[in-house]
Design goal:
Length: 387
């Protein structure tokens, strides 16, 4: 299916991207709108922390307070400045990792979740494979250089797309600044952190995600932008100007492609009449279902809706069908249809159902009584035969 989309995309204008590798991906569908060297294995620098954050979010309790048993590893260049005896929550460590790219915060979190940085890296690699990031391998939680620590623009786009589904992650990376809190003895310490992602102030549609830099990796950026209800992801590796490249990619996507929502999550597709209370049920899409195509083309779109259940009782949120989409005769995608409200049987239905069940019960009972009478009669004749 990706092949079909790429066939449509004869570049509408030449993109001047200075990055060694870059990709533009639709957030909802995961489809590639533009790519250059997207499968080349390169050092990801602190974009590594996006995957570290996923592992932390899925395996840790953000409200947990950690007491540092020793001074954390330095992990230059940026340090939060934590010391032995400090107390800090996992959520504040997560904020420091994502907003200011604090390496010591990442190391402390990795040690708590994985037991050691090496074991935490194993969890990262397991998660990467689960997400389909098959050309990546991670040695550490922060992204400092190592010959066996690498990823690709494509893999990092997959990882970013998955991370953005987590509302805590999405909220943190969209924040231009955060105030961090921790305790040193009885003293509450605070620190104002400015987000390293300058795209949040440079581009009006930007809403995340994470910067990265080492001498070996060059300037790197994983970014997200939302225009209306359409969201795109770009990943840029080793660029002389990540902000310029990111804006160029997003403008390319927003100006040259058009989204067509077959269905939007939480917005009823239709209301189905049903015999029950209430007498109709709202049919919702479980997830957004979106078709994307170049502005100068109009593909043939076929929508197929199948309902599995159209009778009460129905529970709110219950799967009652599926909606599928074909584009130019080829399968594009699908999502489940769920009930937006509960429907209980009405009184006539209940009475009718009860009457039918009661009638069947009486019929079976009569048969059993008749069989019992025959059995008793046969037994009497056996033991007390007539002369």
């Amino acid at each position: 299916m990706v092949g079909w989309l790429l066939l449509l995309i004869s570049p509408l204008f030449a993109l001047n991207i200075g990055a060694k590798s870059a990709i533009l991906m639709d957030y909802t569908t995961g489809r590639i709108l533009w790519a250059y060297n997207e499968k080349e294995k390169l050092p990801p620098a602190s974009l590594t922390k996006i995957l570290s954050a996923i592992v932390l979010l899925e395996r840790g309790n953000l409200d947990q307070i950690l007491t540092l048993e020793k001074d954390p590893p330095k992990g230059e260049p940026f340090l939060l400045g934590l010391k032995k005896g400090d107390k800090i929550s996992l959520k504040n460590l997560l904020i420091a990792m994502l907003v200011r790219s604090a390496n010591d915060a990442a190391l402390v979190a990795a040690g708590r979740i994985g037991g050691s940085e090496g074991k935490f890296a194993q969890l990262m690699n397991e998660k990467a494979k689960e997400l389909g990031a098959n050309d990546s391998h991670f040695i550490n939680c922060h992204g400092l250089p190592h010959p066996l620590h690498y990823s690709t623009a494509y893999d990092l786009a997959l990882i970013t797309r998955y991370a953005l589904r987590n509302p805590t992650f999405a909220s943190i990376v969209a924040s231009p600044r955060e105030e961090l809190k921790w305790w040193r003895g009885n003293e509450e310490k605070t620190r104002r952190l400015e987000n390293t992602n300058k795209l949040l102030s440079l581009y009006p549609y930007a809403n995340g995600v994470k910067t990265g830099y080492t001498k070996e990796a060059g300037r790197c950026l994983s970014a997200s932008a939302r225009k209306g209800n359409w969201q795109l992801i770009s990943v840029i590796l080793n660029s002389p100007d990540v902000w310029k490249d990111a804006i160029a990619l997003f403008e390319y996507g927003f100006n040259n492609f058009r989204p067509y929502f077959i269905a939007q999550k939480d917005i009823p597709i239709e209301y189905m009449k049903i015999r029950g209370n209430p007498p109709r049920v709202a049919i919702l899409a479980k997830d957004d279902l979106l078709v994307i195509f170049p502005c100068d083309q109009q593909p043939s779109i076929k929508v197929e809706k199948t309902l599995y259940k159209d009778k009460a009782p129905i529970k709110e949120g219950e799967k009652i069908g599926v909606i599928k989409v074909e584009v130019n005769g080829e399968y594009w995608g699908e999502t489940d249809l769920i009930a937006g409200n509960a429907v209980s049987p009405d009184l006539p239905q209940l009475f009718s159902s009860f009457s039918l069940k009661f009638s069947i019960f009486i019929f079976l009972l009569l048969i059993l009584v008749r069989l019992w009478e025959e059995s008793v009669k046969n037994s009497r004749e056996k033991w007390f035969p007539r002369d």
